[in-house]
Amino acid sequence: MTEGPDIRPPDLRVDGPLTGDELNLLFHAAWPGHRDTDFGPVLARSLLRVTARSAGRLVGYVNVVGDGGVHAFLLDTTVHPDERRRGFGVALVRAAAEAARQRGAHWLHVDFEPHLTAFHERCGFRSTAAGLMPLDRPLG
């Protein structure tokens, strides 16, 4: 009998050390067409972030921003392609949700494309009606 791959849970940390260079490397691997980004302003405005590391390498990330009150928003859930389909993404989101709850959030919002519905349901989200307005072009 052959054993499956060695799947160890990653080291999850809330607000652990993180550099913009690490994020750019992860995003380049996970998102075709990613352009290097200055993540300083993004990280400075976060309510919290959760990172996942395997053997010291950043393999997962999620960002949570807040409104200063009871609403928090999940952004940029990312798992390295080599580490997908192992439950790391769900673990990242659940850790982020618990940390946001501990910091006073009552609601965690997320926007996602239809093909990601099953993933977000596994994380504990339920579908609701929402609106989205693109701001990358003039309004009118």
Please describe what this structure looks like:
With 140 residues, the protein is α+β, with helices and mostly antiparallel strands. The chain has a single domain, classed as 3-Layer(aba) Sandwich (Aminopeptidase). The protein is 28% helix and 24% strand. It has helices at 20-30, 40-45, 88-102, 117-123; strands at 11-14, 48-54, 57-66, 71-79, 107-109. It has a 5-stranded mixed β-sheet with strand order 1-2-3-4-5. Helix 3 (88-102) links the parallel strand 4 (71-79) and strand 5 (107-109). Helix 3 (88-102) packs across helix 4.
What attributes characterize this protein structure?
140 residues, alpha+beta, Aminopeptidase
CATH-scheme architecture: 3-Layer(aba) Sandwich
Span between N and C termini? Answer: 63 Å
Structural class: alpha+beta
Any idea of the CATH class?
Answer: Alpha Beta
Rg estimate, integer Å: 16 Å
Order of strands, widest sheet: 1-2-3-4-5
Q: Give the CATH topology.
A: Aminopeptidase
| CATH fourth-tier homologous superfamily | Gcn5-related N-acetyltransferase (GNAT)
Strand percentage, roughly? 15-25%
Overall strand count: 5
Write the layout of secondary structure elements.
Blueprint: E1 11-14, H1 20-30, H2 40-45, E2 48-54, E3 57-66, E4 71-79, H3 88-102, E5 107-109, H4 117-123
Parallel strand pairs: 4-5
Antiparallel strand pairs: 1-2, 2-3, 3-4
Helix pairs in contact: 3-4
